[in-house]
């Protein structure tokens, strides 16, 4: 059983860091980072076997964030786990930083593959899962796809391949794929651009066992991951219904927040909402919480720049 | 040693190296009979993966296998493989995955199948990526050594192979090394730099020119990225004239790479021979003659270039 309280608390911290780093960067993708963070946190802090001190440990579980534009979520979780100091988060998208705008495996240990050119992560995940199976390692592979992303043709090449590849000796039952179904892509709502429905039936027709969950409920995510691990002979697919911009009222379900950084004042309001503090109680909260006070101080300083 | 298509030599090398190195795996997209991985697949069915006609997924899966410690040879016709450039660009190059990309059916010499099956822009595309080595071996011996080199080399490699038979040009004691070219014939008046398909025609052209007292140095440039800068500058410095010969589009291939280096480092009169426009169906000899890549055509271009 997942420790829901602990994981929710970590996810909340990561949401704050996502807002913080995007405000500092002045560009980036808050909507999809906030929709995916509960999935990332449940995996990295509740499920995966990994060691921030040994990012190249061959038997580690792998997370491939195929929707690479949501990498602030991954960076926040990686920093929280100890892959690099949290101070480094505000170098996101800055010249010389290993925290590239989209994941770069060669600059940041712990990033498994370059992603962000959409549609490629599932194929890479298939290859890693197959290689691990052939090596006889028990490691698992997790791949997170964006909903708009699966409009890419390569995804369906990989979808067709997944349940068949490696059979019969090395079926890819060490692979779990999660769709972050937040219903919004860059230009507009997914259903308006190029509808995915019936998305469950599509993956089922390609031979994948599929379950559907609320991608913000840690216990539901955890249960689906249990089902994935218990499944033999095939990779597993989870459709996680999520809310774009989850946790920040003015970002939720708003296509404009796909790829726009919050201004410092917006970031401060977002942090306050994520922490669940009312406007009236905010100054008092800051007076007591030095970490948040420092973070808000940083954001206020940004505003003056 | 009789002539052999470099794709056939590749298939044999893979079989031999695959027996010794468990890390070697092959990926194909329904062309394993043409890319010649089929013998390896028969011998090691558990290490040969046919992904179907889905090259993007094949390239990505290859990258993943490399990230898990395998040495994947990802094979298709050069045009179909490099046609999925964006996948190569991110999943292989930017990820710096230890993938060996193998593009067969290079150039117009495939003949009858026509333009859509001809790899003609592959070198130009791959050359623009910062970290993929490009090797186009000339004959059986060099191919086998290049494949062995690719296995040892840590990092992505692009091997460009021919469908047609290639006569041996490298001496028996030859050792392939990345970034090293081979002088096949010494000469004083012009440096003929050939790679792949037309390399034998370069030697033949040099013999024709010798009969007219034009002394052509013939260089086999298997390593297209990196170039053998030392050899190129030394030879060009001596002869003062450089001609490149390749079965590839004129833009961006070996000739382009040579032009970039000479232009910046040692401006030298240069003539690039290659394929102009789209290819077309026909017999390979006739196509080489049409594009001036046959011995007579190469010799004629050299004569004109030297004003002789």
Q: Which strand order does the major sheet of chain A show?
A: 1-2-3-5-4
Calculate Rg of chain B over CA atoms.
19 Å
Which structural category fits the helices and strands of chain B? alpha/beta
Largest sheet of chain B: 7 strands, mixed
What is the CATH superfamily label of chain A? Thiamin diphosphate (ThDP)-binding fold, Pyr/PP domains
Number of helices, counting only DSSP H or I runs of 4 residues or more of chain B: 13
CA-CA gap between termini of chain A: 47 Å
Q: Name the CATH superfamily classification of the largest domain in chain B.
A: Thiamin diphosphate (ThDP)-binding fold, Pyr/PP domains
DSSP strand tally of chain A: 5
Question: Most extensive interface, residues per chain?
Answer: A-B, 35 and 32 residues
Shape of chain B: globular
Which range does the strand content of chain A fall in? 5-15%
CATH class of chain A: Alpha Beta
Query: Order of helices and strands of chain B, N to C?
Result: EHEHHEHEHHEHEHEEEEHEEHEHEHH
| Name of the CATH first level of the largest domain in chain B | Alpha Beta
Question: What does this protein look like?
Answer:
The complex is a heterodimer of chains A (305) and B (308). In chain A, helix 5 (153-161) links the parallel strand 2 (141-146) and strand 3 (175-181). In chain A, helix 1 packs across helix 3, helix 2 packs parallel to helix 3 (71-81) and helix 9 runs antiparallel to helix 11. Chain A has helices at 4-25, 30-46, 71-81, 121-135, 153-161, 190-194, 199-205, 218-230, 264-274, 282-288, 290-304, and strands at residues 62-65, 141-146, 175-181, 210-214, 236-241. Chain A has one domain: Rossmann fold (3-Layer(aba) Sandwich), CATH 3.40.50.970. Chain A starts with a helix and ends with a helix. Chain A is built from eleven helices and five strands. By secondary structure, chain A is of the alpha/beta class. Helix content of chain A is 43%, strand content 9%. The relative contact order of chain A is 0.15. With 308 residues, chain B is of the alpha/beta class. Chain B folds into two domains: 4-166, Rossmann fold (3-Layer(aba) Sandwich); 182-305, Rossmann fold, CATH 3.40.50.920. Chain B contains 13 helices and 14 strands. Chain B has helices spanning 6-20, 32-35, 38-43, 55-67, 78-82, 85-94, 122-127, 140-152, 199-210, 229-239, 254-265, 284-290, 295-305, and strands spanning 4-5, 24-28, 48-50, 71-77, 100-104, 133-135, 157-160, 165-166, 182-185, 190-195, 216-220, 223-225, 242-249, 270-275. In chain B, the strands form three sheets. Chain B has a seven-stranded mixed β-sheet with strand order 3-2-4-5-7-6-12, sandwiched between helices. A five-stranded mixed β-sheet of chain B has the order 9-11-10-13-14, with helices on both faces. In chain B, strands 1-8 form a two-stranded antiparallel sheet. In chain B, strand 13 (242-249), helix 11 and strand 14 (270-275) form a beta-alpha-beta unit. Chain A binds chain B through residues 58, 104-106, 112-117, 119-132, 134-135, 153-154, 157-158, 160-161, 165, 169-170, and chain B through 25, 46-47, 49, 51-52, 54, 56-70, 72, 86-87, 89-91, 94-97.
């Amino acid at each position: 059983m997942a420790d829901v309280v602990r994981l929710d608390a970590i996810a909340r911290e990561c949401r704050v860091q996502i807002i913080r780093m995007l405000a500092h960067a002045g560009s980036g993708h808050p909507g999809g980072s906030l929709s995916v963070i509960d999935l990332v946190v449940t995996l990295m802090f509740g499920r995966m076997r990994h060691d921030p001190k040994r990012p190249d440990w061959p038997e580690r579980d792998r997370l491939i964030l195929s929707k690479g534009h949501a990498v602030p979520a991954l960076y926040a979780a990686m920093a929280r786990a100890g892959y690099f100091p949290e101070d480094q988060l505000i170098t996101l998208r800055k010249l010389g930083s290993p925290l590239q705008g989209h994941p770069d495996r060669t600059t940041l240990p712990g990033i498994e593959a370059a992603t962000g050119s959409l549609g490629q992560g599932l194929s890479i995940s298939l290859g890693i899962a197959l290689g691990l199976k052939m090596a006889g390692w028990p490691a698992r592979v997790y791949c997170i796809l964006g909903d708009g992303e699966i409009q890419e043709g390569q995804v369906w090449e990989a979808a067709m391949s997944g349940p068949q590849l490696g059979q019969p000796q090395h079926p890819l039952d060490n692979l779990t794929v999660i769709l972050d179904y937040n219903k919004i892509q860059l230009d507009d709502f997914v259903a308006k651009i190029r509808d995915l429905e019936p998305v469950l039936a599509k993956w089922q027709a390609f031979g994948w066992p599929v379950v559907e969950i609320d991608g913000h409920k840690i216990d539901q995510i955890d249960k689906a991951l249990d089902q994935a691990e218990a499944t033999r002979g095939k990779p597993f697919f989870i459709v996680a219904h999520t809310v774009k911009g989850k946790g920040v009222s003015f970002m939720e379900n708003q296509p404009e927040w796909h790829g726009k950084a919050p201004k410092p004042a917006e970031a401060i309001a977002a942090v306050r909402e994520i922490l669940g503090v009312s406007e009236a109680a905010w100054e008092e909260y800051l007076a007591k919480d030095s970490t948040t006070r420092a973070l808000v101080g940083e954001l206020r300083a940004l505003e003056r720049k | 040693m009789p002539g052999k298509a470099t794709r056939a030599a590749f298939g044999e090398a893979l079989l031999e190296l695959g027996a010794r190195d468990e890390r070697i795996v092959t990926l194909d997209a329904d062309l394993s009979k043409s890319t010649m991985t089929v013998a390896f697949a028969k011998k090691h069915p558990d290490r040969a993966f046919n992904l179907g006609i889905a090259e993007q997924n094949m390239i990505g899966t290859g990258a993943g296998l490399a990230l898990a410690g395998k040495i994947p040879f990802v094979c298709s016709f050069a045009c179909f493989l490099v046609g999925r450039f964006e996948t190569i660009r991110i999943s292989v190059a930017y990820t710096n995955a230890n993938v060996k990309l193998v593009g067969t059916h290079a150039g117009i010499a495939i003949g009858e199948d026509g333009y859509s099956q001809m790899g003609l822009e592959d070198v130009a595309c791959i050359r623009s990526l910062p970290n993929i080595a490009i090797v186009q071996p000339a004959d059986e011996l060099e191919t086998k050594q290049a494949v062995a080199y690719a296995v040892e080399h840590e990092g992505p490699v692009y091997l460009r192979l021919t469908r047609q038979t290639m006569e041996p040009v490298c001496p028996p004691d030859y050792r392939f090394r990345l970034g090293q070219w081979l002088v096949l014939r010494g000469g004083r008046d012009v440096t003929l730099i050939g790679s792949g398909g037309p390399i034998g025609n370069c030697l033949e052209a040099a013999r024709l020119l010798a009969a007219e007292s034009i002394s052509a140095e013939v260089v086999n440039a298997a390593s297209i990225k990196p170039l053998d800068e030392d050899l190129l500058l030394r030879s060009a410095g001596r002869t003062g004239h450089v001609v490149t010969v390749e079965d590839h589009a004129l833009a961006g291939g070996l000739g382009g790479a040579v032009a970039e280096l000479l232009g910046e480092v040692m401006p030298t009169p240069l003539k690039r021979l290659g394929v102009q426009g789209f290819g077309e169906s026909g017999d390979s000899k006739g196509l080489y003659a049409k594009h001036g890549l046959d011995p007579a055509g190469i010799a004629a271009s050299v004569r004109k270039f030297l004003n002789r």
